[in-house]
Amino acid sequence: MSVHLRPEEIEAESFRIIEAELGAHRWSEREWPVVRRAIHTSADFEWSQSMCFSENAIDSALAAIREGVGVVSDTTMILSGVSKLRLKPFGITASCYVADPEVAREAKELKITRSILAMRRAGREAGNGIFLIGNAPTALFELIRLVREENLRPRLIVGLPVGFVGAAESKEALKELAREIPELPFITNTGRKGGSNVAAAVMNALLIQAEQ
Amino acid sequence: MSVHLRPEEIEAESFRIIEAELGAHRWSEREWPVVRRAIHTSADFEWSQSMCFSENAIDSALAAIREGVGVVSDTTMILSGVSKLRLKPFGITASCYVADPEVAREAKELKITRSILAMRRAGREAGNGIFLIGNAPTALFELIRLVREENLRPRLIVGLPVGFVGAAESKEALKELAREIPELPFITNTGRKGGSNVAAAVMNALLIQAEQ
């Protein structure tokens, strides 16, 4: 029975099923492991249609990982989902400031969302790092502002907020920003879908590639 | 611009959009907030087709929450996603044993997955509690075995593993179990989709109802 397979055998079998059912696709050899892991984590083949990568996204991400840059996220769920075991050999610290008491205090005082303030803090702490956004469109909009107005230059933006208010629009704003700044490395998608689980899966797929 | 709405306004607007786009549905007044939050967290309307509740699921869950029973999950992502703020007034402790060193040691020794051993431990620690499974089919299969063979009687099983190997089958096994034990309270779905994000969303929706 399939449940008696070891975890790595289950993963290999899952990938085999995904590839058999999807058939031909448009992804490069280095993009595909990222898209495949997004499908694997969500059981949703739509990711094969909706994901997009800047041309330099994987190069920039792998170099940044190998340098051990900081990783910041907009949710603690992403932190939980990114493999600690895979971060460790690169000496990477992953952080999320949304539950930080200082951020909460400031949010109340300034009457702006904790997501926005957490992104500003992330910009100060890990400006040249990897930014993983899997929940809040406001976080991605603020990150876009930091890049455009304050010259923040992340080594990778994973822009995958989810939802019905602003999520799709925030991703289009990211693509618009990348037309202004063509060297900006990003991975995003089109539409409302996204999520902390998929953002973490993208990061894990990149960590696995960086090991090789 | 929509991004300047407060978080609770964004949520209300999201729910309005979900209800407007979905139109008529088959859910009861108390099931709908759970299904709606699953759609909200995933931007995937398929949840309105694929979810299923045992008749007593919500009653049993709300009573258990109000008694402050233990909550256990198969992933730390679920723990991150369940609102600590909402657990606290009920005095509920949420736990996940999959990263427990003892579980890891035993898994190596016995050559069975950590998910299975974490579920056994959860059964010992919180047998009459709420079980949230959002990732591993093996965890749900083991929970089913504990109910059938060792008389474990959870107050709610949220069975939402995701993936291509065993996930759909584990949910059908849960429904089969519920035919043998008609009083077993469960929330699950049909098919491969699932995930820690949706399992956490279901729990949060139940906590909100229990407050009322």
Automatic annotation (TrEMBL), chains A, B:
BP-aspect Gene Ontology terms: cobalamin biosynthetic process
UniProt pathway annotation: Cofactor biosynthesis; adenosylcobalamin biosynthesis
GO molecular function annotation: precorrin-8X methylmutase activity
Residue ranges constituting the Cobalamin biosynthesis precorrin-8X methylmutase CobH/CbiC domain according to the UniProt record: 9-207
Alphabetic keyword roster: Cobalamin biosynthesis, Isomerase
Pfam families found in the cross-reference section: CbiC
UniProt record similarity statement: Belongs to the CobH/CbiC family.
Protein name: Precorrin-8X methylmutase
Chain's gene name: cbiC
